[in-house]
Amino acid sequence: MGHWGRSCVACPFFFKEREVIEELLAENGLVPDIDDDAFGEAYERCPAVQRSVIKNAVGFAYALAQDGVEPVMQARRLGHVEQSVRCERLEWAFFAVDLRRFPLPAIFSAMVQALVAKVRTLVVHVSGPVSDPLLFGCDFLSAHQVFTTDPEPVLKILATSGQGICVDLAGTDLDYPRTLRPDPAAYGVEIRLPDSGYVQAYKAVTAEVTVQGRPYICYGGEPGCAPVVMAERLLGCWVWDEITPDTFRYRTLNFS
């Protein structure tokens, strides 16, 4: 293929258990719209400094998500009642994304939470522009099931493949019982940093964003100027307030 540069960037928390759902999609004629050549070409076109912005965002999200032992079974006594909680990873996560609504660091941070939770299969549907940084990030996260055509048939097949979740960052009207749909109006970004090559790279990576929400993250601001303030060296990093590894786990409660 000639894309040897890509082979060394694969994300370290990729789990090789996805073939069953991928094969099921293929058997139903649902083949990803982005092939390996497209990922390779995007890698070649994406400047190194833009790739650095994405890798830093992914690394930051992964580090923040390491919050202790993975929950499996918990039990406690509440007065005269015994409560037990069983926690299992979801089989799949469907990410509907639109680069005009949320910046790429937000999208990839959400995907990292699913990977940390060890979700078996990540499927991505892109509405609107498909940028080189987007493809590089999906490739970096080993999220190669990327579709750009009608998402309904894909979600319909996924719905027959065990417990899953739809994370709608595109503002679609997809109908699935377990859907999380953050409002981009609540997740604006403000930059209070002097211009630099890295700032320009961040702006290039997020150039497609058109929704200007109220400030949620401020890069370079004073503490308290926004709900989340990031130092200059963390430009491009993202932390979600409503998407965590637990978002991608299935919990059942038992009382006795």
User: How many structurally independent domains?
Assistant: 1
- Cα-atom Rg, whole angstroms? 19 Å
Shape: globular
CATH architecture: 3-Layer(aba) Sandwich
Give the DSSP E fraction (strand runs of 2 or more residues). 15-25%
As laid out across the biggest beta sheet, the strand order is 5-4-3-6-7
Q: Helix/strand-derived class?
A: alpha/beta
Tell me how many strands there are: 11
> Per CATH, what is the topology?
Rossmann fold
Order of helices and strands: HHHEEEHEHEHEEEHEEE
What is the first-to-last residue Cα distance? 59 Å
Q: Main β-sheet: number of strands, strand sense, barrel status?
A: 5 strands, parallel
Low-confidence stretches: 1-5
Mean pLDDT, rounded to whole units?
Answer: 89
CATH class division = Alpha Beta
- What's the helical proportion of residues? 25-40%
Supply the number of helical segments: 7
Structural description of this entry:
It is a single chain. With about 260 residues, this protein is α/β, with parallel strands linked by helices. The protein has a single domain, classed as 3-Layer(aba) Sandwich (Rossmann fold). The strands form three sheets. It has a five-stranded parallel β-sheet with strand order 5-4-3-6-7. Strands 1-2-11 form a three-stranded antiparallel β-sheet, with no helix packed on it. The N and C termini lie far apart (about 60 Å). The N terminus is likely disordered.
List the helices and strands and how they pair.
Blueprint: H1 19-27, H2 36-45, H3 48-65, E1 73-78, E2 81-89, E3 92-97, H4 104-116, E4 121-126, H5 132-140, E5 145-147, H6 152-158, E6 164-169, E7 179-180, E8 188-191, H7 197-205, E9 215-219, E10 228-230, E11 249-255
Parallel strand pairs: 3-4, 3-6, 4-5, 6-7, 8-9, 9-10
Antiparallel strand pairs: 1-2, 2-11
